[in-house]
Amino acid sequence: MGRGTLRIYLGAAPGVGKTYAMLAEGHRRTERGTDCVVAFVEHHGRPRTEVLLHGLEQVPRRRLEYRGAVFEEMDVDAVLRRAPAVALVDELAHTNVPGSRNAKRWQDVEELLAAGVDVVSTVNIQHLESLGDVVESITGVRQRETVPDEVVRRAGQIELVDMSPQALRRRMAHGNIYAPDKVDAALSNYFRPGNLTALRELALLWVADRVDEYLNAYRSEHRVSAIWGSRERIVVGLTGGPEGRTLIRRAARLAEKGAGGEVMAVYIARSDGLTSASPKELAVQRTLVEDLGGTFHHVVGDDIPAALLDFARGVNATQIVLGSSRRKAWQYVFGPGVGATVARDSGPDLDVHIVTHEEVAKGRGLPVARGGRLGRARILWGWAVGLAGPVVLALGLNTAGLGLANDMLLFLAVTVAAALLGGLLPALASAAFGSLLLNYFYTPPLHRLTVADPKNIVAIAIFFGVGMSVASVVDLAARRTDQAARLRAESEILSFLAGNVLRGETSLEELLERVRETFAMESAALLERAGDVAPWTCAGRAGFGPPLERPEDADVDMPVGDYMALALTGRVLPAADRRVLAAFAAQAAVVLERRRLQEEADQARTLAEGNRIRTALLAAVSHDLRTPLAGIKAAVSSLRSDDVAWSEEDQAELLQGIEEGADRLDHLVGNLLDMSRLQTGTVTPLIREIDVDEVVPMALGGVPEDSVGLDVPETLPMVAVDPGLLERSVANLVENAVKYSPPGRRVLVAASAIADRVEVRVVDRGPGVPDEAKERIFEPFQRYGDAPRGAGVGLGLAVARGFAEAMGGTLTAEDTPGGGLTMVLSLCAAATRPEPLPAGEFPTEPERHTI
């Protein structure tokens, strides 16, 4: 049985109708005779969702007990035993209760897909892993439940369930999403019109990018070269001149006018001579276009207009932005210029914008070399001058009678002109033809191909030799100029590449994409294998349809060592280009090796941290655990001894010592276990709404009475936290504050609401902590100052901060006015968190967009 297909209903926010659309799809498939079951959908007592569940078979759920409460999760084994054709699974990003088969629901879905079951699921845009920072900057809420983008991108079909912010807020006000007592808080916080509009834009743009990927794949598979203006893509042609910044900003303004506009700046390095490009200016322009959200591309091309148009058509661009020429008026005799040529050859599907700027007609910083490798037109002119020039000159000299010496100099001038224009062969032809004409018309006997005076033979020979020498020098100069120009273009590319790699700005995939663009290939892949007979594997690729089995299947195969090769498809590269390709291949191998070394370094760092934790744990066991154990053992031994008759007061004192030692052990072991859980990433908070005044008093049980004062108003908003983790965090903070407070000075625990946060402050009047040490005290096994061994192992603050961050909060240290230290625990107010379970029951079916 093959792998199942995944279909996802994507929404911008809770309440847009994803669950409604999924259940409606389940009914449609059931009516068509498809074996469809509900693997997990929670209706939360909402009547419309419950109605849609009627008529659909529901697989029994698995019940799990965690922290004294019973939770229900999808029973993956039961679904696999049932083996339906289609399973409906709500909330793809959901985090399962500890003890479940998998940590995340999307991992459960992967098992169903691997078993050949088709899955229909739902997810909100804010739960995509790559958008976590963006969503937090918009809403102020960090999403803890996320799903990797690649899981969603692999879906065979994605439907965008869309709704305007105004309509969604109306649904919220009517009580169709949250309970009535939560509506006002939600409308004034997460469900503000600005938040919803921004999230909707994120969803639309993400789906548009996915559509764009499909379009590019289709164009590549079907080799479509015509431009399809499905999206505004603006290519900016850069010369490296100062006008480039103006062009980039103009293109960015054009892109803003169209939905999903994209700006791509391209610099084409000429291989036929030096240009006026300034590497420093190109670097500034590259930074500018990237800051404006565009991309920078570096391409080699012999014909700049043709290369620019090829690039634009290759990326399916709709517009080209060029600057008005900086050439002076007389320079137009050499041709119409890049702008006019691009506009003439662009065709009806590509708009060309010529933008004026301050550098128009001011000339270029360096002369533009026309030579190098002689072009076809130039060679034709050389042949024309070399063959027709002597004939025209001979006709003119027949009537002038300037003498043999002057005639030879004039014929030599024609030969030099042919050499300058056409190179060696036209010059040789001109020299030979001119020698015949000189012999026939101007050396006695006239009009015969014989020479009477031996001196004239020497003169003609010298003329022919000088002509050949000049032609050879001109041809050699042209070849050297071509080599210098090509090396200049190659050095620009290699220096740009090396700079990116050395700065760590280029990943392997980005580097391969740069290779593909530079050499105008369809795909590029870095293949490797473990040995001579081992199969090839793909370490990285760019483009569509790269060779993944053997380098020999590609159009270009560049070996990198014995067991690695860079493979490209699209066309066969000339030998001159393979030198630069070899440098790219070597850099690709370096990037791959660096990535693996970084992964190994990360693993080594993790192991080193684990070793440090284990070493500290051993130190704690060797002293901090043994000390209370020794006290307990001594007290127990004394009580059991028959040699001494203990009074009731002595017995009570010994028992009190045993109790204090046991409490100390319990606290120490608890912190050690908590730190171990934090280090291994196994802390999974169960967030729920609770009042701060219900939790904080419970955290004071481990400190002496009258050592702490409370100021926690009952009117504070509820917080979205794990009560157990919050209690442990506050308990550690209070214990630390009491430990360092002077005798007779009470620790103050106060709470207050600030904007969408609730802050719990633990204030002491102890010695305080310098600013440079305020972060260090939160590291594991750190104790400030000369704290004695009996003061603990230094885990309390590290555990408190770890638990705070696990709940989406923060923990910082501040100076107490008048002396001392204040610990500030900032928590999310409940109203600022979205409902974790989205609603999907609505009377009408929402608008959907399928890709």
Automatic annotation (TrEMBL):
It is found in: Cell membrane; Membrane. InterPro entries: HATPase_C_sf (IPR036890), HATPase_dom (IPR003594), His_kinase_dom (IPR005467), HisK_dim/P_dom (IPR003661), HisK_dim/P_sf (IPR036097), Histidine_kinase_KdpD (IPR052023), KdpD_sf (IPR038318), KdpD_TM (IPR025201). The keyword Cell membrane does not apply. Residues 620-831 form the Histidine kinase domain. Keywords: ATP-binding, Kinase, Membrane, Nucleotide-binding, Phosphoprotein, Transferase, Transmembrane, Transmembrane helix, Two-component regulatory system. It catalyses: ATP + protein L-histidine = ADP + protein N-phospho-L-histidine. It is an enzyme of class 2 (transferase). The chain crosses the membrane at residues 380-397, 409-437, 457-478. Pfam families: DUF4118 (PF13493), HATPase_c (PF02518), HisKA (PF00512), KdpD (PF02702), Usp (PF00582). This is histidine kinase.
